[in-house]
Specification:
With 240 residues, this protein is mainly alpha-helical. It has two domains: 29-90, Winged helix-like DNA-binding domain superfamily/Winged helix DNA-binding domain (Arc Repressor Mutant, subunit A, Orthogonal Bundle), CATH 1.10.10; 96-233, Up-down Bundle (Four Helix Bundle (Hemerythrin (Met), subunit A)). The chain contains eight helices and two strands, in the order H-H-H-E-E-H-H-H-H-H. It has helices spanning 29-43, 54-61, 65-78, 96-116, 123-163, 166-183, 189-208, 211-233; strands spanning 82-83, 89-90. Strands 1-2 form a two-stranded antiparallel ribbon.
């Protein structure tokens, strides 16, 4: 007769329940179209109050109607575009108060991101910033305003991507989606000269590692452009 050996029960290890997550989705054509429109808004290639249509988006990015319509609905939900009572869609028009608030936010957040970029900037980044600044000076608003605006975006975001976390960078992008269309109004001859001078100070601050100078130069660049924009719109600042 076989003998039964009593063994101590193996204690069961309790495992935490796994959270229920949504399946990971691939980047859809809708998302790509929406990002293209966001980029155009941040570059300043649209104007405040400008009408945006599905047909226009299709022509701009070479997409078919369905993803363009889905992208437009996504951008409306995000506040990047505005759906009006008559069902037309436009680039939002900021009030003076909204513009002042966004300007204050930009000064703080972008200044902080630029200051932190000191820790990661390399000689390649400095060379690229100088190249972008030179391209902007050659283009100018009189020669090719879209080249100038694209260069301005690339200049700033090369720095912010170095110094900002993904979360902070997403905030900066949302601010630029709203103010990008207004930057075009800052491009008179004086505004371009002032911006070029501030960009030179930004580069110098990165080269020397002077965080205080960097914050100051970014703030001066933002507030200088904002003041030119206010004059072009016939408004005055309520907070500066």
């Amino acid at each position: 007769m076989s003998r039964v050996t009593n063994r101590p029960a193996t204690p069961m290890t309790s495992r935490p329940a796994m959270p229920v997550l949504k399946p990971v989705e691939n980047v859809t054509l809708r998302d790509q179209v929406a990002q293209s429109v966001r980029d155009a808004l941040m570059y300043g290639h649209f104007k405040p109050g400008q009408s945006v249509t599905v047909k226009g988006i299709c022509a701009m990015v070479g997409a078919s109607v369905m993803p363009a319509r889905e992208a437009m609905n996504r951008l409306i939900a995000d506040g990047a575009l505005e759906l009006r009572a008559n069902r037309s869609v436009i680039v939002p028009v900021l009030s003076s108060q909204e513009f002042d608030e966004l300007t204050d936010l930009r000064c703080f957040i972008e200044g902080q991101a630029a200051a932190r970029a000191v820790e990661r900037v390399t000689d390649w980044h400095i060379a690229r910033l100088k190249e972008l600044d030179a391209t902007m000076r050659v283009a100018g608003p009189a020669a090719d305003v879209d080249v100038y605006l694209t260069g301005n975006f690339q200049f700033h975001f090369l720095i912010y991507r170095l110094g900002a976390s993904k979360y902070v960078l997403s905030i900066i992008e949302k601010l630029w989606v709203r103010v990008g269309p207004l930057i075009r109004f800052s491009l008179d001859d004086r505004g371009v000269v002032d911006s070029s001078r501030m960009h030179a100070q930004v580069i110098r601050g990165l080269e020397t590692g002077d965080r205080t100078a960097l914050r100051s130069a970014i703030r001066a660049d933002i507030t200088g452009a904002a003041q030119t924009i206010r004059k072009a719109r016939g408004t005055s600042s309520t907070g500066h």
